[in-house]
Amino acid sequence: MNQNFLKIEKSGKIVLAAVRIVQAIIALSVALSLLTAVLPGTFFAPRMDRTGGFWIITFSNVFTNVVFLAVLFLMGRFLQTLKDKSPFVRENVKKLKLASGLLIAVEPVQFIFQSVSNAVRPAANGQKEVLITSFGGIIFVLGLVVFCLSLVFEYGIELQKQSDETL
Q1: Residue 87 · residue 12 · CB < 8 Å
Q2: 112 to 4, 51, 64, 122, 158: CA distances (angstroms)
Q3: Helical (H) or strand (E) element with 70
């Protein structure tokens, strides 16, 4: 049993390190997106037509990256609690539910940004270009899966409580 715990702890450290690396990459992506939007056209940021559509797409991308960064932050905190104590605590359920809410919100907000961007996009050669920036519902479904996982953890809390009362 002690050997299994050590394997789980080692796996948790590896996953936590991977989460931290992805967090750093997403944070860098957010910073570079904002820097590209603000800087004039240079080698780093090529000249762009900064109309309303550009700003909407930029904010849409930054919003999505910030949501993913927040979800990864919550998952990092979740993984840290695994090494300290039992995973079946109310704090973890709250973290999972918040992460699921953030993931579920990405698709509708992306759709709103997309609709506004398409409305303000000027017509080129008499034809209107339509931009689609959706994840195809995958992020929404992932949010539902994380929510179901939070319900499993909630049930685990009840089972652990009953087990502790029986002892």
Answers
A1: no
A2: 47, 18, 12, 18, 39
A3: helix 52-84
Q: Which of 107, 30, 35 is nearest to 70 (CA)?
A: 30
3-state secondary structure of 127: strand
Residues of the chain with pLDDT under 50: 1
Which amino acid makes up residue 114? Q
- Residue 98: the pLDDT is 93
Whether the full predicted model's pTM is greater than 0.85, yes or no, is no
The three-state secondary structure class of 9 is helix
Of 72, 75, 76, 78, nearest to 30 by C-alpha is 72
pLDDT digits (tens, 9 = 90+) for 51-96: 666 777 777 778 888 888 888 888 888 888 877 677 888 998 999 9
Distances (CA, A) of 82 to 14, 100, 153, 155: 13, 19, 13, 17
Sign of the CA dihedral 94, 99, 103, 108? Answer: positive
